[in-house]
Design brief:
about 90 residues; mainly alpha; 2 domains; two-stranded antiparallel sheet; about 50% helix
Length: about 90
């Protein structure tokens, strides 16, 4: 299964018409986009207020909104995990 960071790196080549499975200089082309993908994830590490509020309105299994603070913590945790997980 591809990690979120790998999927992002593969997607970065698409606007240039590059195939994510293309081989370049003996390696997979998508790997050359990993640094750019990391920069994007680092830039969105802390969610904006509108995202925190939207996430806070999401209801848990019991139908209770999870709240902005929990939503922000979940977002940050997910981004941190995406940055730590490299293929």
């Amino acid at each position: 299964m591809r990690t979120t960071l790998e999927r992002a790196a593969r997607a970065l080549g698409q606007p240039e018409g590059r195939s994510s499975d293309e081989i370049q200089d003996g390696g997979q082309l998508w790997r050359t986009y990993l640094p750019k993908a990391r920069v994007v994830f680092e830039a969105i590490h802390d969610p904006s207020l509108d995202l925190v509020l939207a996430g806070g309105a999401v209801e848990d299994v019991g139908g209770v909104p999870i709240g902005a603070m929990r939503a922000e913590a979940v977002w940050i945790s997910m981004i941190y995990r995406a940055l730590a997980k490299v293929t």
